[in-house]
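Q: Predict the assembly, please.
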Amino acid sequence: MNPTIARLSAQALLGRRRGVVLLVIPALLIGLAVLLRVLTDADGGYDAVLTLGYTLALPLVALLAASAVLGPEIDDGSIVYLLAKPVSRHVIALSKFVVAWLATLALGALPLVVAGLIMDSGNPRRALAWGAAGALAGTTYSALFLALAAVTRHAVVAGLLFVLMWEGLLGGLLTGIKWVSIGAWGRQVGYRFSARLDDAFLPLSYAVLAALVVTVGALWLTGDRLRSFTLRGDE
Amino acid sequence: MSVLTLDAASRWFGNVVAVNGISMTVGPGITGLLGPNGAGKTTLIAMMAGFLAPSAGTVTLDGKPIWRHTDAYRTIGLVPERELSFGYLTGRQFVRANAELHGLPDPGAATERALATVEMTDPADRRIDTYSKGMRQRAKLASALVHDPAVLLLDEPFNGVDPRQRMHLMALLRRMGEEGRTLLFSSHILEEVEQVARHIEVVVSGRHAASGDFGTIRRLMTDRPMQYAVASSDDRRLASALMTEPSVLGVALRRQGGFDVSVADLGAFAVRLPHLAREGGIRILELTPSDESLESVFAYLVGGPA
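A: Predicted assembly structure:
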C-alpha cells in the first residue's frame, strides 16, 4: 500500500465528473426507498428495491470507481509518471484497489443497508444481510473491474456487458451460472445472515473462497499488466 | 556514471517496423537523438525507459535489461513528450508526489531543490492547468530530476516551448551534461540538437543513419550536392548547356517536363544559370530547391540523393 498513489487516486476519483455520478447512483437508490416507504404498505417493494440496488447500482458503482482510478491515466498515458518510479507494480495495483474498494463499500454496499433500514426499520438484520452480500460482491467487483481497466481500454463497456448480460440476464436464465457469478456468491453470504434473502444454493465456504480467489487473482493481474505497461507514441 | 546500451534493438507493431536493428551506446554527457517525425525516436526512448519491450535485440542499463525492471527507475529520469494531465495538482504537489514515490528520505527538500533547478519555485503553488507549455515542460523536468537521476531521457523537450524558455531549458540541459549525467534528448530540428548536444545519433525510418559529433553530422548534411527543379521554355537545350558547367554534377529530364539538376557549387551555379539561359534565348519558368525539407536531407544521409 502506497499512500501517495492512494492519495492521487482518490483525487482523480473525486476530482472528475465521474465523482458526481458515483454519488447520484446511491442517492437514486435511497430516494426510491424513501418514495416506496411513503407510498406503499409495510413490506411493499423491499425485495425489488434491494435487488435493484444489489444487481445494478452496486456493480455500476464498483465499475465507475475502479475504472476512474486507473482508466483515464492509462488512456492519456499519464500513468508513466507513476510507473517511472521504483515502486512495485503490485503495490500500485493494491493502492488503487483500496481507493476503489472503499468507494464501492461507501457508495455501493452501505446504501443497501440504508435503503433496507428505511423500508423496514423493524428488521435491521435483514438490511445488514444485504450489506454483507454487497460488501463481498462489491469487493470482488472492484478488483475484477480494476483488472479490466488495466487490460483493455474498453473497460467500461466490457464491464457493463458483464454486469447486464452475465450477472443479470444469463445469471437469471441459467441457474448453473451461480457457480461463476459474483452476485450469487454475495447473496449466499447474505443468506447466511438472514433467511429473508434468496438462497443461492451454494456452499458458503465456496462462495467466500471464490470471491477471494477472483479478488487476489485480479489484483495480481492488474500489477502484472502495469509492469508491462507500454507507452506508445503518435508514430 | 551510467551507460545505456542498445544491441540490435528492433521493435515492430504488427507489420510496421518502428525501430530496425539499432545498436548504440549512450554514455555520460549529452546525446542528441535527431530524426524526422515518425522516425522512431519516441519508440526508441520508450524502449530505453522500460516502457516498451524490444521485439528483438536488447536494451540494457549498466548491463541489466530495462524492460519489466522496476528498480531501473532509481537511475532513470524520464520526461515524456506526453502532456502533463495532472491539471488538478499544483506544480509543487506534483513534484512532491514524484519525490514521495521515489521513497526519498526528505521529499520536501528534494521537491524544493528540483523546483529551484528549473526555476519554478514562484509559480509552484499554481495549478498545473494554468501553466504555459514551457512551464509544464519545466514541471515535468523537475519531476524527473527530483531523485537526482544518473540517466535523464527527454522526448522532444523543446516542442512548443517559446524561444526564451527554450534558451533557458538548453542552458539547464548543458549544465546537467557537464555534471556527468547521461542525458539523451530527441528532436527533429538539427539546429536545436547541435546547440545542446556534443554527440548526435541520427535515426531515419527506424534505422540508425549516422552517429558522431555535431561537426561530423553538419558536414554530412551540408557538404552534399544540392538538388534543384528547373522548368524552362527549352528544357533539353538548357540541360545540355548546364552539363558543360563544372558546378553541375548531373541533370535528369522529367517525363512531364522540366528537369532536376544536381549542383556541387551553388555560388557558381547561381551565376552561370542566368547567363546560359540568356545566351540560348531560353526563359526560365521555375527554379526551386527540391531537397530543402529535412526529410530529403535525411534521405541523403541514409541512401544518397533520392
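Chain B has a mean pLDDT of 89. Chain B touches chain A through 41 residues (CB under 8 Å).
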